[in-house]
TrEMBL record:
Gene3D superfamilies in the cross-refs: 1.20.1050.10, Glutaredoxin
UniProt domain GST N-terminal: residue ranges: 1-80
Protein name: Glutathione S-transferase family protein
Species name: Pelomonas margarita
CDD domains assigned to the protein according to its UniProt record, in alphabetical order: GST_N_2
Alphabetized Pfam families for the sequence: GST_C_2, GST_N_2
Sequence ranges assigned to domain GST C-terminal in this UniProt record: 85-204
Length: 204
């Protein structure tokens, strides 16, 4: 089994943190910006989107970072991270899907302009910052309700993927809303193995 993708990618770090939590030694090859091009035919044969990461497990190939995280947890029978009970699992997957869709889309313009240096209209950047804070406030409200983790008392894969997004929000050069439940939750996440290596490591 191996993972293809550069460690500076948030989506790659979702998978590497999951692997660390599972105690899984997951070899990784650098692909993407600054490394081997994901537009090479050999890579596109694995992922036609030309994006990272990609997991290769024998003759099984999987892309989409949240799907990879779920696969690894299921493969190793880690029901603490990904519950087997249908409703509990659905709740975890709901917040993972929200992270990949709604939350990520809210910050994309602001992050790419302010951190990656891509051109963008100032009003578009400001709208993205407002949307980013609004979505983070939704997460804050959920964490205030649970008083612990994203879906309740237990740490799950939802916290893994949301934790990386929250750390990006915390480090971004933007005006941030005051979100005490998010702040307290990030402190709790800090106790998890691999947090300092894959989340609170200074990477954007």
């Amino acid at each position: 089994m191996k993972l293809l993708g550069r460690l500076t990618s948030l989506n790659v770090r979702k998978v590497t943190w999951t692997a660390a939590l599972l105690g899984l030694d997951l070899p990784r090859e650098d692909w993407g910006t600054g490394f081997q091009s994901t537009q090479q035919p050999e890579y596109l044969a694995l992922n036609p989107n030309g994006l990272i990461p990609v997991l290769v497990d024998g003759d099984f190939v999987l892309w989409e970072s949240n799907s990879i995280c779920r696969y690894l947890a299921a493969k190793l029978g880690a029901t603490a991270l990904l519950p087997a009970e249908p409703q509990a699992r659905a709740r975890v997957e709901q917040w993972m899907d929200w992270q990949a869709g709604e939350l990520n889309n809210s910050w994309r313009v602001a992050f790419m302009a302010l951190v990656r240096g891509q051109p963008a209209a100032p009003e578009a950047v400001q709208a993205s910052v407002v949307g980013w804070n609004r979505h983070m406030a939704m997460l804050d409200a959920q964490l205030a309700r649970t008083g612990a983790f994203a879906t309740g008392d237990a740490f799950t894969l939802a916290d893994v993927v949301l934790g990386l997004s929250a750390q990006r929000w915390l480090n971004a050069p933007i005006e941030r809303a005051s979100l005490p439940a998010v702040s307290a939750w990030l402190q709790r996440l800090g106790a998890q193995p691999g947090f300092s290596t894959y989340v609170d490591n200074g990477m954007p």
